[in-house]
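Tokens as discussed.
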């Protein structure tokens, strides 16, 4: 046991054979969730306001975009305090998945321009995929030490 402790410190044990010690790093995503969530909320709100068919649909898209952007801002505040943002990311995944379906199916059926519907559906699906990756990867990178 003493030789292994020495090997962990960097020296070879008496037998001449080095023992490697694995140091596990905490897992996290490459990018913060709020770096994508806040801009996506703006795209969802603006795209919905411009391209959605019907007043209720426009209000729904604006509201969903505002909720996603506010959720991203809340995630940023939570991250700055050192908290866990998984619930914020999960909410974004649910909203973006619903928006992808809504633009792809409901708005397309209501007469939304095909290019706009598919573009908004693709952006929403990509955001949902990022949110799922973000949760699976372990969440936000930790704040850098100053």
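Sequence:
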């Amino acid at each position: 046991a003493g030789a292994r402790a020495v090997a962990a410190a960097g020296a070879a044990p008496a037998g001449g054979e080095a023992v490697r010690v694995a140091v596990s790093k905490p897992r996290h995503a490459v990018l913060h969730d709020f770096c994508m969530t806040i801009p996506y909320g703006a795209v969802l709100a603006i795209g919905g306001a411009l391209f959605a068919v019907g007043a209720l649909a426009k209000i729904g898209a604006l509201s969903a975009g505002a909720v996603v952007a506010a959720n991203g801002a809340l995630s940023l505040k939570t991250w700055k305090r050192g908290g866990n943002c998984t619930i914020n990311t999960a909410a974004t995944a649910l909203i973006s998945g619903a928006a992808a379906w809504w633009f792809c199916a409901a708005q397309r059926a209501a007469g939304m321009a095909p290019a706009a519907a598919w573009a908004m559906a693709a952006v929403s699906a990509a955001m949902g995929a990022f949110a799922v990756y973000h949760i699976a990867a372990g969440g936000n990178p930790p704040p850098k030490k100053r």
